[in-house]
Structures are given as structure tokens and as C-alpha cells.
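notes to self, project folder thing:

trying the whole complex as one job this time. last attempt i did each chain seperately and stitching them together was a nightmare. two parts in total, labels are on each line so i dont mix them up again. if this works i'll redo the older ones the same way
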Amino acid sequence: MTRTKVLGALALIVLAAGTWLAWTAPPEAVQREYYRIINIHVPSAWLAFLAFGVTAAGSIGWRITRKRGWDRMAASSAEIGVMFIALALVTGMIWGRPVWGRFWDWQDARMATTALMFFVYLGYLGLRRATPDPIARADRASILGIVAVVQVPLVYFSVYMWRTLHQTPTIRPDGAQMHPQMLTAMLVNLAGFTLLYLALLSARMLLAKREDDLETAPQPVAGTSVARPSLES
Amino acid sequence: MSPDTVVLLAYVVTALMVLGYGLYLRRRWRRLPSG
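result (full assembly):
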């Protein structure tokens, strides 16, 4: 729990600094003040990508080692990733209304693929809830966790593959097309969101471990002399 | 709605979502049987 609290405190400090930097950076030439929303929108989307990547890594780890810790990591990260992708969708809609004139456009490739990703990972969480046996749950979820991660590059490159409403990335491997103050604010916010992700992952994994321990503990089913067989392989 | 209000709205929604998720985790933790 101490690690979670330290990470949470660090996240709060860095996010406070990031928010101050975001609000004091100069306004953008065309979008004016509205662009400040990207300081939440972009880190949320990136952290969702990272979270779903960690889910895929945890799923692969489970399939190779059959150790429950990997499955807990996959499940915990997916849940946090769903929250981050929901944040990216909501903040994108709040920004889109004044800048693009609409909250949503299904014909836009980035929006449509991101919404699809959100629903697929909701399905991942639903699949976990619908499977009571812990081993079967980890097995089934791991397949989806590995397959679903192909959506991350699909969402990222959707703006290149289909030139629709959403613009291409401003920060690219070949450099950032931003004012240095705006870039600093964005990077500090990205660091804050990363710390927030790590704090939430730490808390969620502690919870998952506790739930796992309770779930797999031998339960008396017919008095105290008979115990339920362990499902651990 | 002024541009500053729109940006503020995005920040408030973000804070509420993160706080809500944190409270959800805490509630799940507290509902677990002790032992």
C-alpha cells in the first residue's frame, strides 16, 4: 500500500505542475484556449495504449508461465485502460464540439476505431466477469488480451490510413510541431498521467491479489472435513 | 459557453472520472471479507 500512496502523491504533484503549465502556456493560433484540452486528451489516449500493451504482456506471461500474477496484471491494466480510453473519448468530444462543430463523427477513422477499442476492452472485462472459474477465466481472457492489442497500432495509424476529420499526430518520432512551452506542458502531463497509471495499477493489483486469495482459498463445502478441490494447476 | 469554461469542464470531468474510479476501488476493497 505504501508504494501506491507514494506513486499517488507523486502523480498529484506532477499533475498539479502539469495543469499549471497547461493553463499558463500561450493560446494556440487557431484554436485559442480550446487546445489546452489536449493536455488531458493525448496523455489519456497514450496511457490507454500503454495499459492495453501491459494487458497483452500479462496475457502472454500467463499463457507461458501459468502464474496468476500475470493474469492479475493483465486484468488490472485492462480496467485502468478502459478508464483512460473513456477519458480520451469524453475529452475529445468536449474539444470537438467548439473546434470541429460536432461532438462525434462515426465517419472519422480515429473516433470510430477508438470507440471500437473501448467496446472491445469493455467486452474483455465482461468476459472476465462472466467466467467464474479462475483458470478458465485467465485462459479465455488471455486470448482476447493478446488479440485485442492489434487495435493499438490500428487506432494510432488510422489517421494515416484513412484521411478523415482527426488530424495526424503533432508529436512524432521525427519531432514535435509545437511551441516549446506547449510541449513542456504536454510532457509534464504525460509524466503525471504515467504516475497516475502506475499508482492505479499498484492499487488494482493489490485488490486483485486479495480477491484471488479469497477465491482460491479452500472453502469447507460439507462441514469442516471436506474442502473444495483447488483449481490451481 | 466561454472557451475557458469548456477547458475547465474537461478538467472537471477528468478529475471526477479518476476520483470515481479510485472510490470504486476503495469500495471493492472494503467490501472484501477480512481474514
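what i see at first glance: Strands of chain A lie at 171-172, 175-176.
need to look closer tmrw
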